[in-house]
Amino acid sequence: MTEKKKTTIVLFSGDYDKAMAAYIIANGAAAYDHEVTIFHTFWGLNALRKNEHVPVKKGFMEKMFGKMMPRGADKMGLSKMNFAGFGPKMIKDIMKKHNAMPLPQLIEMAQEQDVKLVACTMTMDLLGLKQEELLESIEYAGVAAYLGDAEEGNVNLFI
Amino acid sequence: MKIVKVLDAKGLACPMPIVKTKKAINEIDSGEVLEIHTTDKGAKNDLAAWAKSGGHELLKHEEVDNILKFWIKKG
Fold first, then answer.
1. How far is the first Cα of chain A from the last one, in angstroms, to the nearest whole number?
2. Which one of A153, B21, B46, B49 is least enclosed by Cβ atoms within 10 Å?
3. What is the reported pLDDT for A3?
4. CA B13 to CA A11: how far, in whole Å?
């Protein structure tokens, strides 16, 4: 085949359901033999957080942000019907019944399929997230790197 | 029709059937045929579109007891 097509996704949202949609599309695009990039910014960065506590040096505000935001994909809430955390429990139960892949596994699968996961460094600073707190083998970049991928892209989404 | 591989994707939900199909097709040679079994109702449109985009040929499909079967010839 000739040159690979490209899919680029901006994941801005920190909601479980929206991140799931982003990662399903990313995995699908990878199966379409696209070069896929997910650029995580703002609340979307939480999808890349490790679920364990990582001791890093932080200021007061950064610590507060770290505490208030979900630590990892599995802890994210729903964009609708969250019901103070009960919603995600229900939906995960239903997903199991229907054999749908939970978000952490979708992220793993994306990494297996060589989807490029990028963390936006500017918003990492704003939210006080450090590299040590995020998953291994991801990339760090800003708007220019994203645009570099997106301008040659065939599919481009903001979620 | 030279079926060299059968992929069991029964019970799997989107996007897994397509992800697994892609993996399986990578393991066969051009001109060989992959047989896929799935229960995902979206699979017919999914696989038809996917095969077309990748330059493969969806030879035929059939439904038996709620199991969808597809035969794709690698391009």
1. 30
2. B49
3. 82
4. 22
- In the predicted model, what is the mean pLDDT of chain A? 96
Q: Please report, for residues A1, A8, A17, A100, A147, the alpha-carbon distance to residue A115 in angstroms, rounded to integers and kept in the order given.
A: 19, 10, 19, 20, 17
Helices (H), B1-75: 16-26, 43-54
- Which residues of A fall within a CB distance of 8 Å from B50? 31-32
Two tokens, residue A97: 């019944």
Query: What pLDDT, on the 0 to 100 scale, is given for residue A2?
Result: 64
Nearest CA among A105, A113, A95 for reference residue A38: A113
All residues of chain A having their beta carbon less than 8 Å from the beta carbon of residue B42 are none
Question: For this structure, is B14 an active site residue?
Answer: yes
A94 touches chain B (CB under 8 A): no
Condensed to tens digits (0 to 9), the pLDDT of residues A69-98 reads 999 999 999 999 999 999 999 999 999 999
